[in-house]
Design goal:
The protein has 154 residues and is mainly α. 68% of the residues lie in helices and 0% in strands. The protein has helices at 3-36, 45-63, 69-80, 90-99, 105-125, 143-150. Helix 1 (3-36) runs antiparallel to helix 3 (69-80). The longest helix has 34 residues, at 3-36. It starts with a helix and ends with a helix. The relative contact order is 0.15.
């Protein structure tokens, strides 16, 4: 891969990473807020399952003592592009400081596992509606059954 391509791809990975972080954080705030404000969409099964799965991946990586695979992938691409240190653009440097904190991995492990437990708690506290809770159509009475009851008195 050419260094310029690696750099462009690293920026793409960083953008996707930022979107996923935003999705994860939004879900942690929007679900309880939506329950309080009675927003029905916060119970959507597909949305909630995607959030739970995304948070489970984060927590599992932390429990295994691994950095996020997107972080590792971006770092590899940046090295292939010959980038390191402060040669990043202003926006990229700001985003890096926002999402990449210089703390031991054990701190992130505790945080991510706690957030994973919180996400599971949201699943229990504000359960998604996955096919249940919808009204089932009542069987219609046949014309003969309806005529038998129409002329009778109690």
């Amino acid at each position: 891969m050419h260094p310029a391509e690696a750099l462009e791809f690293a920026h793409l990975v960083l953008g996707v990473h930022l979107l996923i972080i935003g999705f994860n954080l939004a879900g942690l705030v929007v679900v309880p807020l939506g329950v309080w404000l009675r927003w029905n969409w916060v119970h959507d099964c597909l949305w909630r399952a995607a959030h739970l799965l995304s948070m489970a991946v984060v927590a599992a990586q932390a429990a295994m003592g691994r950095a996020c695979f997107l972080t590792l992938w971006q770092s590899d691409l940046m090295q292939r592009a010959g980038q390191q240190g402060d040669r990043q653009g202003l926006i990229q440097r700001w985003i890096d400081h926002l999402i990449f904190w210089n703390l031991p991995l054990s701190v992130f492990t505790v945080i991510y596992l706690a957030v994973g437990i919180y996400t599971l708690g949201l699943w229990w506290w504000a359960p998604p509606r996955c096919g249940r809770g919808r009204r089932k159509a009542q069987p219609r009475k046949s014309a003969s059954a309806a005529s038998k009851t129409s002329g009778q008195s109690p």
